[in-house]
Specification:
β5 and β6 form a beta hairpin. About 0% of the residues lie in helices and about 65% in strands. It contains no helices and 11 strands. Strands 2, 4, 5, 6, 9, 10 and 11 form a 7-stranded mixed β-sheet that branches. A 4-stranded antiparallel β-sheet has the order 1-3-8-7, with no helix packed on it.
């Protein structure tokens, strides 16, 4: 399973971006997924997730970030509005993905490659 991220960019404070994370595998179906933020010089922290139908947002992004999915495209999204300089960093998706392999369904956990978001004041 491969997760491919896109959508990172440089924006000014108050701007918006939409990050995408697409699963690539035979018959891939994304189940639970999570988005993480790694600020420069800091540890990776979870900012949002969808697990077993429950949605979670970190306090720092509540009301500004929204997660969604398009099952037909095997893709999940992180809509980021009213961006702040402290949102700067690399964003990673992590997902549990069902896929079809050698006549059977398997599940794997995978990470995206990360996408850079830079927010200037």
């Amino acid at each position: 399973v491969q997760l491919v991220e896109s959508g990172g960019d440089s924006v000014k404070s108050g701007g918006s971006l939409r990050l995408s994370c697409a699963a690539h595998a035979n018959g891939a179906v994304i189940q639970d997924f999570r988005w993480y933020h790694q600020a420069p010089g800091k540890q990776r922290t979870q900012v949002a997730s969808s697990t077993s139908g429950n949605i979670y947002y970190a306090d720092s992004v509540k009301g500004r970030f929204t997660i969604s999915r398009n099952n037909a495209k095997n893709t999940v999204y992180l809509q980021m509005n009213n961006l702040k300089p402290e949102d700067t960093g690399v964003y990673y998706c992590n997902a549990d993905v069902d896929y079809y392999y050698l006549g059977d369904w398997e599940e794997d956990n995978a990470w995206g490659q990360g996408t850079q978001v830079t927010v200037s004041a």
